[in-house]
Amino acid sequence: MKKIKEILNALLSSNTPTGFEFYGNDTIKSLAEGIFDEIKTDSVGNFLLVKKSSKQNAKKLLIDAHYDTVGLMVTGVFKGGFLSVTQLGGLDTSVLPSTEVTVLGKENVYGIITSTPPHLKKGESKSPKMDELYVDTGYSKEKLSELVSIGDPIIYRNKVDYINGDYVTSAYLDDKACLCALIYAASQMDKDKMEFDLYLTASAQEETGKSAVARLTFDLEPDLAVVTDVNFARTEKDDSFDCIEAGKGASFDISAVTDRKITKNIMKYLTSEGVGYQCSCEPSRTSTNADYVSISGNGIPTVLISVPLKSMHTPSETVNLNDIKSLSDVLVKISYNDKILN
Amino acid sequence: MKELLNKLSLEFGPSGCEDRVREAIKEEIKDYIVGKESFVDPLGNYIIHIGGNGPKLMISAHMDEVGFMVKGITDEGLLKFGTVGGIDPICLGAKRVISESGVRGNIVMKPIHLLSPSERGQAPKIKNLSIDIGASTKKEAEELTFVGDYFTFDSDYVEYGEGFIKGKALDDRLGCAIMCQLIKDIYEGKIEPKYDTYFAFTTREEIGYSGAYGASMRIRPQYAIVIESKAVADIYGVDEDSEVARLGDGVIISFADRGAIYDHTFVKHIKAIADKNEIKNQTNRYISGGNDSMHIQKNAEGARVSTLSCASRYIHSQSDVIHEDDLFATYETVKEVLKNDRPN
User: A162 to chain B: nearest residue by CA?
Assistant: First the structure.
C-alpha cells in the first residue's frame, strides 16, 4: 500500500485540469520511468505508456484512465480582484461557495469562490448559477491582470487527507485513483507471465466529454480495451441501485456499450482465481471513455471497470485505497490471460 | 498579532466547547497578568481584571466559533448533524470537518444525478447533508464518535492577495488576538488605561444565549467595547448599498446593528479618537447582524456600549476572510481609546 500511496500522492500533486493535461507531463514521465518500455505523448494531450510481454506477437491490451480533472476557467478580470468563471466539465454549483481554488496563471494564484451573505438573499434558497459566482483573489484589478489572463484554468485547491485509515480525500481522485491503479498494476506485471502487450493510456479531455483517447485507440486497434473510471459510491441509504459500495473492490460496469462476452469471461476467471470484485449496471451509455473507445477505429471490444468514489467532482472526492489495490489486482490478472477474449 | 491569530484560529472551539481556545489564551497571556485578578466563571468566560484609573470598562471578544453537533448515526455509518450557530447550508457541500478528538470527515450530499428534478437547483438543506467519517456501519462510526460530539470546519490559515487573511473561526479569534496583544501592551507599559479595565473572553456568542450575559453581570461595566467581525458583502456584482462595509477600509465603528443601537456619545468619542490618530475607519452602511453588545448593554445597570469590528467576507464558512489593515486598525483604535479619558 505504501507504493500505491506514493504513486497517488505524486499524481494528486500534478495540476491537470481538462485541456491542460500537459501540466502533468513531468509527473507521468517520472512515474513511468523503469516500468515501461516506451513513453509517448500526442498532439491532443494523451500519454501512451507501453510495456511489452516477453511473448512474441502478443495481443494488444489497452488500459485507459483519464488524466484530466474538472475545473473552472477565467472569463473576466474585475475590480477588487474578482474573476468571473465558467466550468470545465460538470460541476454542481451547490458545493462551490466558500471553496478554495488555485488559478493557474503566470504563477499560481490562491482564490476563494464567493458566497453571498444571508442578509442579501431573498426568498427560497437556490443553488447559485455559475455566472453569479466569482473567484476572490485579494488583488487589485491591475495586479491581477498581470498574473491572470482570460482562459487560464482554475482548479480546486489541493488538500489530501486520509480518513479513518484507508480512505483518501482529494479534489482530483477522478480519475487519478484509477490512473494510480494502472501504473501500480503495470509495475507489478511480470513480462514472462503477460499474455498481452500493455498499452496504458493516461488520456485527455474526458471531463468535457470529448474523450481524446479515442484518437489513440483508432491508431492502435487493440484486441481489448479496458477503460477504468470512477463511479458513484453510495453514501446515504439508496434503494435505486445507482451506486456501488466503497471498500468492496473494483466494479465491473455492465452496459450496452461494453462487451458482454469478455466481461463475463473476465468475471468468471477472476472468481476462479479467488479475486474479488463487484458489479453494477449502466443499462444505456456509460458516460465514460468506454462510450467512445468502443466505437473508435473498426470497433473495439471494450470492458469498463470502476473504482467507487464519493462526492464526485467536488473538492472532497473520496476513495478507499483498498479499491485502488483491487483494481490493480484485477488488471494484472487480465494481462496474464488472453483466453478471456475467446 | 497575525501569528497569534493563526494559532488561535486553529484551536477547536464551537459554542459550549471553548476549553481549548481558553487554555491557549491563558497560556499566551499568563506572564503578562501576574498579580492581576483573573478567573473562569461558570459559563466558561475567562475574565481578567487589569485595573486602571477611571470608570469600569469591559472589553470583550468571544472565543467560540460556529460548528456542528452529531445528532444521530445512520445504519450506513453516516453522521446526521445540526449546526452550532448560524451556518448557510450553501457553504457546506463537500467541505471537510474535524471532531474534537481529531476524527476527520467530509460533508456529503446526494450526487446530482440522483436528485429528483424538483431537488435540482435548490440549495442543500441541513437534513439532507451528512458527515462521512469513512465508517461503513453504525458500529464502526460509534468507535470514532458519539451523539453529542462536536465538529468544526477543518480549514487552515492563509494570507493571500494584498493583505487578505483566510481561516476558520477568524470570527472572533481576531478579537481574542487583539485583546491578548492589548494585555501585553499594558503589561509592558505601552498603554496606561484611563479606565478600570476588564478583559472578557466570552463563550457561546454564536448561539445568541451568550456567556457575555454572565460576564457583564459580574463586571457591571459602565462602558463596554465588543471586538468582533462583521459579515459584509463587498464582492463583485453586489451594489454598494448592500455591501455593508468594505475589507481594507479600516475598523468598522458601528452606530447600530440588529442587536443594539450603540451609545451615541461613546461611538462619537471613539470615532473622534480614530480620526485624530489617523486610523482608517468606516461605519456599516446597512443594518444587519448582532453580537454580545446587545446583552452587555441591557444587563445589570446598563452599559454604554460600542462594537469595533473587522469586515468579514464568507463569514461562518471554512473560508472566513478579513483584511490585515482592518485587524491592525481595530487594535489601534481600542488602544487609543484606552489611552484617552472617557467621553464627557
Answer: B104
A304 three-class SS: strand
Class of domain B67-153: mainly beta
Question: Where does residue B150 rank: exposed (0-12), middle (13-18), buried (19+ CB within 10 A)?
Answer: buried
- Nearest residue to A65 via CA among A290, A329, A313: A290
Shortest CA distance to B106 belongs to which of A299, A163, A128, A307?
A163
Q: Does residue A118 register a pLDDT over 80?
A: no
CATH architecture of A2-69+172-341: 3-Layer(aba) Sandwich (3.40)
Task: Give per-residue pLDDT as tens, A223-241.
Answer: 999 999 999 998 887 777 7
b/e code A294-315 from CB counts within 10 Å (16+ = b)? bebbeebbbbbbbbbbbbbbbb
Quick: pLDDT tens for B71-100.
999 999 999 999 999 999 999 999 999 999
Single out the catalytic residue among B11, B18, B65, B205: B205
User: CA nearest A101 in B: which residue?
Assistant: B319
Residue ranges of the domains in chain B?
A: 2-65+168-339, 67-153
C-alpha cell at position A247: 471498500
B205 is catalytic: yes
Domain ranges of chain A: 2-69+172-341, 71-156
Compute the nearest-CA separation of B107 from chain A (Å): 9
Among partner residues B106, B108, B321, which is closest to A112 by beta-carbon distance?
B321
Question: What pLDDT is stored for residue A125 in this prediction?
Answer: 80
* Helix extents (H) in A211-259: 213-220
Please count the other Cβ atoms lying within 10 Å of the Cβ belonging to residue B181: 21
Residue B120's contacts (CB-CB under 8 Å, 6 or more residues apart) are B112
Q: Which CATH architecture does the domain made up of A71-156 adopt? A: Beta Barrel (2.40)
Report CB contact under 8 Å: A310, B132: yes
Contact A100, A110 (CB under 8 A): yes
Which class does domain B2-65+168-339 fall in? alpha beta
